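Database export, one record per block. Field names are fixed; values are copied verbatim from the stored entry.
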Amino acid sequence: MQRVKHFNIKTTLLCLTACIAQNIYAESESQDSIQQLPTIKVEATRSDSNLLNTPASVYRIEQSQNQNNIDVNLTETLKGVPGLQLNNRENYAQDLQLSMRGFGARSTFGVRGIRLYVDGIPATMPDGQGQTSNIDLTSLDHIEVLGGPFSSLYGNSSGGTILTTTKEGTGRDSVELGYSGGSNNKGRADITLQGGADKANEPSYVISSSYFDTDGYRDHSAARKVLSNAKLTWDLDDGSKINWLINHVDISADDPQGLTREQWKQNPKQVNDSKNIYDVRKDINQTQTGINWTKPLNDHQELYSMAYIGHREVTQYQSIPKGEISPNLGLDKDGNPKPSTSQMNPRHAGGVIDFERDFYGADLRWTGKDLLPNTRISAGLAYDAMNEDRQGYENFNAKGEYGVKGNLRRDERNTLWNLDPYLQAAWQFLPTVRLDTGLRYSNVHYESKDHYIIGLNGDDSGQTDYKKLLPSAAFTWEVTPDISTYISYAKGFETPTFTEMAYPTEGTAGINFALKPSTSDNYELGLKAQNRLGNFSAAVFQSNTQDDIVSAGTLNGRATYQNADKTLRQGVELSWNKKLWTNLTAQASYSFLDATFDADIPNTDPKKIIQSGNYIPGIAKNQAFVSFGWLPEQGFNAGVDVRYMDKIYVDDLNTDTAPSYTVTSMNVGYIWKNNDWKVRSFARVDNLFDKNYVGSVIVNDGNSRFFEPADGINWSAGLSVTKQF
């Protein structure tokens, strides 16, 4: 079957036109009911607009509608967002696999191509690598997901931005104690203290802490996580507002790694190292604090400032064999015997990764409203920096035992900083038409100083700069009071992370300065409606990317990366939600994403040439989600959701796929309130029909261990008690 190279945009435009006509008819029938619908405010585009008139794909998820969960992974909350692919690896050593419109799917761990924020404080490192593990779901209020062109407002990312907002303390002081457990010996205990301000200029507060552990679904996948989060909020007499946040996370997790297709079919719970010789595992310790301050200067001007600082420590043990020197393999270019495997190579960085990072930054922004008629102008300056001490060690000792820290094989000091000025403007030049524009100069500076210069391991020091001007523009037309449509364009920019630059593709030591940043041209046409038929949104998009950062392969747990000349992503996103009757709500979404290489990637081996038209691995072409929920403020509540994921190619050559799947989840709960007391209980079952499926893939794994199996049918239940004082 011949693939459709370019998406048929005419058909989509006809669909959008039909939707507009349908909603105009609905608006004329029930104008009164439309006026009673709540206005949903969003902050993701910094434009002080409501959801209906925001010229971007932005979705708001209320945590209050996702209460019947154990609250460990972001996959429990971020459900049904079109364009967002969020997979649970069942591997707490590697975090979740998160991609948006196909950007970020290359990641073997952590988050790439998507920026993360908690209360305006970056949860993404200055190099573009983010982690979801420090997001405290217990104290979460809501999440905004910004995709498409306007995500370029935040600089170094291509796919989008996820902004999480935690609760603010309100009312009387209270304490909440909770415990939940489930399959695989999961257990989570948490405590939350909160209270509003008693007097003016005094802070409200929310303080939470939790302990989680599990044996894991798979062999050698046990994990322990301690997470603490605190937020103080001051609403001052002069109209200004201050938020101070502090967060700490401590994780120790075993890593079962990926399986071959045969291993997955034979026993999805097994670890690829059946004898657990290497004891693959990871320890993470991170502390971060930040403060943001919003101050109105007068009725038309406002200042916003933010500053943060953090420290991160990671130790990771990999499954890399020691290897031997063998004359039978010949000599290398320096006349030395070639090693049969890489760790005996004098330039190899070892099988243990150990680094410490200090990261910090600030953001200062001025906003003027109606300084010119019907305008809003913002100008700001963002600064981020990171200092990293990175070491590599052999993963064996003199006795030949693996899973221990051996001799030093790498020692370097890496630094990174960026200083990005940006400008945004919005002009309501007609009663129903608005122009939004943005301009950001993103510049990132890398430097590595090599301290391990021994024998044949020479000086790998170096530096590089990445710079790009990022314009964006969007027109919004308010067709009727409850229907709007928009068209937008933006230039995207994404630098390689330090982790992606850590190893050259040949597997030796040194920084891979050959990696280039990716740039993209992003186009989007969208429609939004809010009426008696519900909240509806549709978007058609296309992203043309140059020098896309893609996986060059993963061997023995070590990933390397390269640039693809051109890639193409295009698709459609649909979303709908509605309150059907009293407390009964419904939600549905659908995503179509055609992501392909748009030019050949050459290789010295003709069998390994990646041809134009191949699908980008790690990306599902179709996704769908449907859910129903009975969500009263108290009493009995329940919900059911069904999620479909299309097949996913595992490598650039498209030699194999993780099969498509459909999974169902159900939950029930009960909330009891009486004066100063509140009791909440829940129970849920995930993968209700015990589907054996692959939850995520390790893209381009060199040992064909692509598959990370998902959990079978599993349950969880919990109880929390809240007392006000």
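Remark 1: The chain has one domain: 9-168+217-222+257-280+362-387+408-724.
Remark 2: The chain is about 5% helix and 50% strand.
End of record.
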